[in-house]
Amino acid sequence: MSRGPVVTGLGCAGPLGLGLEKGWEGLRSLRRPLGRAFLGTRVLDLEGWKEEEGADRSRGLALAAAQEAVLRTNWAGVSPDRLGCTFSSSKGGIRSLLEAGRTGFPNDFLRQYYPDSAGSLTRDELGWKGPSLSLSAACSTGAASLVFAALWLERSECDVCLAGATESALVPLVVSGFRRMKLLSKRPLGPAPFDRDRDGFWMGEGAGALVLETEASAKSRGVEPLARLSGWALGNDASSPLDLREDGAPVEGIIRGALRRAGLGPSDIDYVNAHGTGTKLNDRVEAKAIRSVFGDAGPWVSSTKGATGHLLGAAAAVEAVYCVQILRQGWAPPTLGLADPDPDCGLRHVPPEGTAGEFRHVLNLNYGLGGHLSALVFSRFE
Q1: Cα distance between residue 269 and residue 290, in whole Å
Q2: Is the Cβ–Cβ distance between 276 and 286 less than 8 Å?
Q3: Hey, do 6-220 and 228-379 end up sharing a CATH topology, with the first three levels equal?
Q4: Exposure class string for 42-63: b at 16+ Cβ within 10 A, else e
Q5: Is residue 105's pLDDT more than 70?
Q6: Which tens digits make up the pLDDT trace of 166-213?
Q7: Is there a contact between 139 and 315 (Cβ–Cβ < 8 Å)?
Q8: Could you tell me the pTM of the whole model?
Q9: Which residues carry out catalysis?
Q10: Which CATH code for domain 6-220?
């Protein structure tokens, strides 16, 4: 089995609650986000945050998640130039961009708007001076950040790396774009991934952060790993800027690639956190790819986007945090809103009350507009 880096810190800011504990409690409660509004699901606890006048909200979400993630890592003993950061956003500070267009451009406008603004803020606030990178891969952005962090650690370019993603794009311009593409759910009770009557997703905002490091680094500082990022794969479905290829082959390819890197077979995976946005075609294609790899009696499957909404560029990072929690807590959440499973999907859905079990390896899948594909395998630390 590939060893892969270990996870030593987790942080989360999402519509189910600010902080890992509140977010996980919200997921366990099987309820819709408290911050549901016309434009999407919001992080209510962050309403009073303001780093400075005009600071973009995506930066506040990033900083909240990052600060929580590094609390238990005891990184003070690591040289600052060995502390890396891959913290990203698919849209950057779009709120600041729109506000600047309305009121005029301040001198520090680029610092607020650039896609790397949240990553730069977290890096500078923490005083981490190692390699730094922010990238954009649509809804696979958070996963890509984790992959690049893992590669840096593998190549010994740093000893510890903060990886994650943030997104706060609940503005009429972006909402209108998704609505024009007919991707947003009109269901009054919310989206229903894999349901026969699904019609799209709710947008949401949030941030997820993970501290990754080599096992040797964690051991030298007496930090107990929470899990291991044992496998990963990034890919591309170039068939359409919007839809997945009907036969699901590109998605199947990244799943198999992540399993190969982890040194695992399909029967080793106990749970799949699916991309599961609730759109008609993509849910069906994703389900087909999952069945192609795992068979009809495969692992438990659910989509947490039914509970959080679709957090866009932050989705994969927040769901990675949930995957580590599933390994630690021995409980997998259901797909909220799934009442009448679509027979064309044919997955082994987590039951409505969730399911407890001994989860050793879990798979997280995310895909983005433009063909970005990602698969991450998290394993229990042993």
Answers
A1: 11
A2: yes
A3: yes
A4: bbebbeebeeeebbbbbbbbbb
A5: no
A6: 999 988 888 889 999 999 999 888 899 999 999 999 999 999 999 999
A7: yes
A8: 0.94
A9: 139, 275, 310
A10: 3.40.47.10
